[in-house]
């Protein structure tokens, strides 16, 4: 992405939606922190309860629904940050913005965060905002990325700085869908793809308490599905488009596995819930040992 990362282990978005404590997360040893998902206007998200732990599977189900304080709050926070790592900002659309006008929300967020982000992630893959995943379809994705790419070029001229853009995709994609996404991403010169968001599937948690709750499943059971999408994307994308591997990292070996499948960087969130900050150190050590081997 044209960026220098202190190390390849990052925080996935959702842990700090509003940019309220990303400096503290950086102090835990992460090389990069991605904040958000942020929307143009503040919104409360879905009714509670909306987060469920499936402890026997080291998993979670969430249907948060992009609860956040709005892009203006996040910008006020990041304007004065002292974080020395790489800062990604993840952008989305408000729940009540019609899907045919989704690009307006993404454009507004891009314009507001551009000056303060090291990279910007376009989140079209949360299962908790109605119809959002429709934007992964070839025609809609092509239209969205065309508008964002054109505006990014204008902003790069205005700020004398080109900010990389990443696309975050779902794990619930067949091979043809992955192929079409890869083609659109390549055509519009996106800098990275993040694989993946949470899954609407329930493989690995069948019969467990809360398994039938609506929302996206994350944690250990997500890993084989996310890894498959990651591996497919690496074979379909040109080598200069970075891949960030997310989904199911609960051990250092999990992080190494994603790098072996073609990821350039890794992120986790649910792993922090179950393992705490020691997982950061464990992943960094495992990656270092793998490199030495």
Describe the sheet with the most strands: 8 strands, parallel, barrel
Q: Which architecture per CATH?
A: Alpha-Beta Barrel
Helix content: 25-40%
- Tell me, briefly, the overall form: globular
Element string (H = helix, E = strand) = EHEEEHEHEHEHEEHEHEHH
Strand order of the largest sheet: 1-2-5-6-7-8-10-11
Tally the helices.
9
List segments where confidence is low: pLDDT < 50 over at least 5 consecutive residues: none
- DSSP strand (E) fraction? 15-25%
CATH topology: TIM Barrel
CATH homologous superfamily heading: Aldolase class I
What distance lies between the first and last C-alpha atoms, to the nearest angstrom? 26 Å
Notes on the structure:
With 293 residues, this protein is of the alpha/beta class. The protein has one domain: TIM Barrel (Alpha-Beta Barrel). The longest helix has 22 residues. It is globular, with a radius of gyration of 18 Å. The model has no long low-confidence stretch (mean pLDDT 97).
């Amino acid at each position: 992405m044209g960026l220098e990362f202190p190390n390849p282990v990052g925080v996935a978005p959702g842990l700090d939606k509003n940019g309220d404590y990303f400096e503290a997360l950086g102090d835990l040893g992460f090389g990069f922190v991605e904040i958000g998902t942020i929307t143009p206007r503040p919104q409360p998200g879905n009714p509670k309860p909306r987060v469920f732990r499936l402890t026997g599977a080291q998993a979670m189900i969430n249907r948060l629904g992009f609860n956040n304080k709005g892009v203006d709050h996040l910008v006020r926070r990041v304007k004065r940050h002292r974080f020395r790592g790489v800062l990604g900002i993840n952008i989305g659309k408000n729940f009540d913005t019609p899907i045919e006008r989704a690009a307006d929300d993404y454009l507004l967020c891009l314009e507001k965060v551009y000056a303060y982000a090291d990279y910007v992630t376009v989140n079209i893959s949360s299962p908790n905002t109605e119809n959002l995943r429709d934007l992964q379809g070839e025609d809609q994705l092509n239209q969205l990325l065309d508008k964002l790419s054109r505006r990014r070029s204008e902003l790069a001229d205005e700020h004398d700085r080109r900010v990389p853009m990443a696309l975050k995709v779902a794990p619930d994609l067949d091979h043809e869908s992955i192929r079409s996404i890869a083609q659109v991403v390549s055509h519009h010169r996106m800098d990275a793809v993040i694989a993946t968001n949470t899954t609407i599937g329930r493989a690995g948690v069948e019969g467990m308490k809360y398994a039938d709750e609506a929302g996206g499943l994350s944690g250990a059971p997500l890993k084989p599905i996310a890894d498959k999408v990651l591996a497919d994307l690496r074979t379909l994308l040109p080598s200069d488009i970075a891949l960030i591997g997310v989904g199911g990292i609960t051990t250092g070996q999990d992080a190494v596995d994603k790098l072996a499948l073609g990821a350039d960087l890794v992120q986790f969130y649910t792993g922090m819930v179950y393992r705490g900050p020691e997982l950061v150190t464990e992943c960094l050590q495992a990656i270092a040992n793998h490199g030495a081997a």
